[in-house]
Amino acid sequence: xxxxxxxxxxxxxxxxRPQIIKSQPVINELxxxxxxxxxxxTGQHYDFELSKKIFTDxxxxxxxxxxxxxxxxxxEQISKIIIKLEKYFKRKKPDLVIVPGDTSSxxxxxxxxSKCRIALAHLxxxxxxxxxxxxEEINRRMIDHxxxxxxxxxxxxxxxxxxxxxxxxxxxxxxxxxxxxxSNKIKYKFNSKKNTGKKILVTIHRVENIENEKNLKKICIIxxxxxxxxxxxxxxxxxxxxKIKRFGLKINAKLIEPxxxxxxxxxxxxxxxxITDSGGLQKEAYWMGxxxxxxxxxxxxxxxxxxxxxxxxxxxxxxxxxxxEKILESKIKPKNSLYGDGKASKRIxxxxxx
Length: 354
Description:
Layout: E1 9-14, H1 17-32, E2 36-41, H2 52-58, E3 65-66, H3 74-92, E4 96-100, H4 104-115, E5 119-123, H5 135-144, E6 149-152, H6 155-163, E7 169-172, H7 176-185, E8 199-203, H8 207-210, H9 213-226, E9 231-235, H10 238-246, E10 254-256, H11 261-269, E11 273-276, H12 280-287, E12 292-294, H13 302-306, E13 310-312, H14 324-328, H15 344-353
Parallel strand pairs: 1-2, 1-4, 2-3, 4-5, 5-6, 6-7, 8-9, 8-11, 9-10, 11-12, 12-13
């Protein structure tokens, strides 16, 4: 049982922007409480703005190891990470490995940890979209059922874990991304502007949207039509840009390079609405009181749907352009309690100290 382990050394494995963001408050809290923490970067996001600038922005612990897996198919990335992590784990022998999120880096780290017989904790456990064509959905379920400790960010996520009878011990600790958001909200004047004007922030990166020519074409048509009436700002993922070019598509939004955490929050704060397929940005938009359109069939963050702050517009259906003005006028009053109270990281460390 995990509560009989003497946890002193902890490895945290990250590889993408959301994973780094989720981990930052936890790393700080662990270090405050005397744990020896090592951060491993798989290098899944190899672009500077997608990875290194996040480390710089958040003043996060410098990775002790970069696996440098870079761009490749998901299976190639996963296999490379497992092989390299096995060597690292055998050499370092951490007492616990914390895996945040649901990326290729996350599932690879969970498998390597389990096979090396090291205790595993999953950060953001229990999130479910129930869309099994999404690699992330398969990843997060496999990670949860391999974990000794499961840190759920919401009540709904905890209930999902109970429904699935997961092996490990589950806790509703709150969302560590919300910890970070609250700690920087006043300092960096997040949410300083009301929903005025017609500026829309766009992010698109999911495999099912950018690898599928039909879906990506639909997204470009949506953006191009909206761009005739609104100002669209699109920090574009390198892979998304590559696919747009490959499929011979055109996009009329203001394309900018990928941005760090604070620049993204600044763009969000200056926008009146968000259009995205990201999981994290759905929550960040809600916390900042911005309406969000999610180009997916479902979402893990059902709380935002119930609060009428997030609107699912699947690409399998016609895009309802006639609803945009009404959505832009939405008045959203975020309920902090849905994602904790900004003390998720303290609760996690308290559990590890128990």
